[in-house]
Structure formats: structure tokens, C-alpha cells
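Known limitations

C-alpha cells in this collection are predictions and should be treated as such. Users comparing against experimental data should check residue numbering before alignment. To illustrate the layout, the record for Tonsoku-like protein is reproduced below. The input appears on top and the generated C-alpha cells appear beneath it.
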Amino acid sequence: MKTPERAKLAKLIKEKAKFQQTGKPRKEAEVCSKIGRHHIRNGQFQEAIEEYRYEMQLWIRQKDMMGEAMCHRSLGECYAELGYFPMALQHHDKYMAWAESTKNYAELQRALATLGRTFICKAASVDEKNSPEAKTSITKSEQALLRSMSVCDNYLKGVVSESELQQMKGRLFLNLGLVYMHQESFNKSVGSIEKAIRIAE
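Generated C-alpha cells:
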């Protein structure tokens, strides 16, 4: 880790200690989230996992279900990066269950998109490559991504900004392009990727 990054981390750790000592768990949890993101940016996923686990306990004690759900989202992403797909999917499911139960459609879109992306990575992993399991993962990815697209089209207009909505759809088209490539549906793959490019222009 470069010196400026170390300095940023040291500052965040100092902030966390201050809120811990003064009994401000919500502020402490917010700093934990920043520390977790710092670790992710530096590829330190195990350290990020430890931070998010600690943060989650703070939210649970505060009975803050949204804070807890966001930790599940972050933990799922970290485990997916490390290739621990069963753990990643467990956390994704908990995050998605919260989004569905609260009808938070912006977060439901993100949960489904993340789930779809994780299944793509799972299919491409050494354990599944060119196996029947890989086909199952790709099918599940397609289902999650198409459902995420449906949420975009039916629930998010006016809920998120138009530019954010287009970014969401652009990422979905790109990931669907990868799904169709895995399925050797090359025309569909090219079509999806072209849609992603048009949105990005």
C-alpha cells in the first residue's frame, strides 16, 4: 500500500477509535464502511471482510436493518472477489431478501445485478469451467439479470436519476452479453454489448 493510502487508512482508524470511545456506534459503523471500501480499493478483501463483519454487529445492535443489509451486500462482493461463491451467494440472498421485503426497488435492482454478476464469475471459475454446473450458473445469472432489467423498466423511472438508470441498464446489457457469450448465442451477445456501448456514448 502506498504512503498516501496508509495515511488515509490511519486517519479512518483514528476516527473509528474516537467514535468508539465516545459511544457513537452509528458514526463508528459509517467509518467502518469507509475502511472496508478502502481495503477493497487496495485489493485487501480479507481485511474488508473483517471490517464489514464488525460493522454489521454495530448495525444489529442498533436494530438498523438497512445498515445490516448493506453489510451483507459488501460481504457478498468481497467473498465473490475471493472466489468463495457459496458464502457470497448467502450474503447476496440476505441482501436481496431485505430489498424485497422493504420494496426498495433501487437496492433490489442492485442485488439482482450483483447476483447475476456473481453467477457469471462462478461459471468462469476453475471449479465449474466447461461443466454442467457452469451451465446452471449461467442460467441463474441470466434470470437474475433479466429480472434486474425488469425492475429498471417497471419501478425505477423517477426513483433514481435518468443518468443513473441508464448506467444500471448499461451494466446489465454488458453482463447479459457475457452470459450469451457463455451460451454461445453470439448474435444475442453482440446485440447486448452494442446496447451497452450506445448507452455509454
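For this record: The chain has nine helices and no strands. The radius of gyration is 18 Å. Please report discrepancies through the issue tracker.
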